[in-house]
Amino acid sequence: MQIRRTINGSIRLTRFKEYLAFVIVTSLLGATAASNGSFGWKLIGVLLANWLAVAFAFMINDVEDAEDDALTPHKCQRNPVSAHDLSPFTARLISFGVAAGSALVYSTLGKTTFLLGMITLLISFLYSWKPVRLKNIAFVDFFVHGFMLSGLQFLTGYLLLIQPLSCTGYFPFFLFSASVVMARCLMKCVTWTAI
Fold first, then answer.
1. pLDDT, tens digit (0-9, with 9 covering 90-100), for 129-170
2. CATH of 2-194 among 1.10.357.140, 3.40.50.2300, 3.30.1660.10, 1.10.1040.50
3. Which of 26, 30, 102 is nearest to 60 (CA)?
4. What are the boundaries of each domain within the chain?
5. Rounded-to-integer distance, Cα 98 and Cα 56, Å
6. How far apart are CA 78 and CA 62, in angstroms?
7. Residue 194 — very low, low, confident or very high, per pLDDT cuts 50/70/90?
8. Per-residue exposure over 67-91, b if at least 16 CB sit within 10 Å of its own CB, e if not
9. pTM of the model
10. Could you read off the pLDDT of 63-113 as tens digits, one per residue?
11. Residue 1, Cβ density class (10 Å: 0-12 exposed, 13-18 middle, ≥19 buried)
12. Residue 189: exposure state from Cβ atoms within 10 A (0-12, 13-18, ≥19)
């Protein structure tokens, strides 16, 4: 029974339903902007690496927020660490295993893509890690969200096929990043007006 609970908790920790579609969209748009329609195995690799990188961002966030989430019934049920379905150690181990998997896949896709992947993983970690906690720094939170959850996925898809970044790649990168920043700002404004 404990094994089933750990497996279910691990799956819930990924929160894959929250990002699966947008990682596909941003990665494919980057690759499409660069490729003129010719795709290969590297596209599958960048999709997998980006999925794992964003999964790590969500997972490590739940690990770091577990104590706070335990105080809110809705978040406690959603967060398997808060719900005691996974120990913090196990959840952290699984999270870093996912990050290592992402890094491994990025490493097969070229130097620039690997570097962007490592930046994505580092930002994802620093976003939630309590000693730094980028998400608690005013305005930094918005920009980190934009880069971490859209801009860098676009760039990895784009730079996978075109190096160096041309002017046509800058506009969509900033557009995707700005759209997430604006969405995050609107969410905060709605939350602030509801209080």
1. 999 999 998 888 878 888 888 888 888 888 887 766 555 556
2. 1.10.357.140
3. 102
4. 2-194
5. 6
6. 9
7. very low
8. eebeeeeebbeebbbbbebbeeebb
9. 0.84
10. 999 999 999 888 888 999 999 999 999 999 999 999 999 999 999 999 989
11. exposed
12. exposed
- pLDDT averaged over every residue in the chain: 84
For the record, the structure tokens of 42 come out as: 């590297």
How far is Cα 45 from Cα 102, in angstroms, rounded to an integer? 9
**In this structure, what token pair is assigned to residue 9?**
């908790």
